[in-house]
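Supplementary Methods, section 5.1.

A reviewer requested that the exact input to the structure prediction be made available. We therefore reproduce it here, unchanged from the version used in the analyses.
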Amino acid sequence: MKKTNEIDAGDLELESFQEEEKPLSNKLDEIFRPLVRKYYSEKIFHEKFIETQYGPFSKYLDEYSKSPYFLKLIAPSGTGEIQNYLVEKFLFKDNIIKLDEKLREYSENIVGLPDNWDEEGSKAITIEAWNHTTTLLRKILYDLWYNGFDISIPLVLPNTDGSFDIDWETEEFQLLLTIPANIKELVHIYGEKSGQPEYELEVRINYELVQGVIVEWMKKIL
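The structure derived from this sequence is encoded token-by-token as follows.
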């Protein structure tokens, strides 16, 4: 297969949620100040907490994140936006590096393929289809990692109709998500847990519902 269009790596959303990063400092301050007062004033970092009264608390997140109390502190802390920020910047940096490397590897020689790339009438593999597929994958992985599930990075493969498959095959379970090129179309999900047919899952649902369904299913089987 020959790729006819060169794709700038900057077009690929390999670091999603970046656009949400800048306004988070104030939100983190508002959420964490009372929580830090509750958890830290009688335990650790008391002096550092006093200093935060005079500067953004987010400056100290890297230090706080090494504390055994940190997960207790952030567990009730609110929005998915902040959860994604914490996962990317503090809690699972090694996982994120591996994920970025895998996604770059998967995208090579795939994203930007034109119509008829298989010489059998296939549809183009677009940047848009790739981006909304990998954005969904990130949301699912971040949610599971944040909640303590050591879930592996799946394969991401193109289909001849322009869609992408997100495919987990492990000793414990199999899970296949087929993400259409047009996200207004339904996402097909098939999952099964090895040796336990009662956990079989097969549905077609709207794109925006997929994360919640997958995360809840994973929590039941893992």
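The CA atoms of residues 16 and 135 lie 6 Å apart. These observations are discussed further in the main text.
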